[in-house]
Amino acid sequence: MVCHLLNELNSAGLSELNYFGNIDFEINRSNFSLLQYFGLKTKLTDGMPFVLKNISDNQGYDIFLSESKNWYLNGLWTEGFVY
């Protein structure tokens, strides 16, 4: 995936790639590490904390879902990759 993105950036003559992801999620940590390995710079975006509000009436609220590390959030294929 990273090689494909870098080839696309190079072919299009672009110099910026925006990837938005939940750093607490293991797969996203790997994605950020790969991007850094290929020379891209990463930074945390202040003012964008993870917020979760349980609006279900499920009395057995799953503690698994209340931890941000269990949420895969990204913006690469939605709003992050723009020509």
Protein model, in words:
With 83 residues, the protein is an all-alpha fold. 34% of the residues lie in helices and 0% in strands. The chain is built from three helices and no strands. It is elongated. 1% of the residues are buried. Mean pLDDT is 77; it is low at 76-80.
List the keywords:
83 residues; mainly alpha; elongated
Q: Could you outline the blueprint of secondary structure elements for this entry?
A:
Layout: H1 2-12, H2 26-37, H3 76-80
Query: What is the terminal-to-terminal distance?
Result: 17 Å
Total helical elements: 3
Outline, from the CA principal axes?
elongated
Main β-sheet, in a few words? none
Whole-number mean pLDDT: 77
Rg, nearest Å: 16 Å
Encode the helix/strand succession as letters.
HHH
Unreliably modeled segments: 76-80
Helical amount:
25-40%
Backbone structural class: mainly alpha
Quickly describe the structure.
With 83 residues, the chain is an all-alpha fold. The chain contains three helices and no strands.
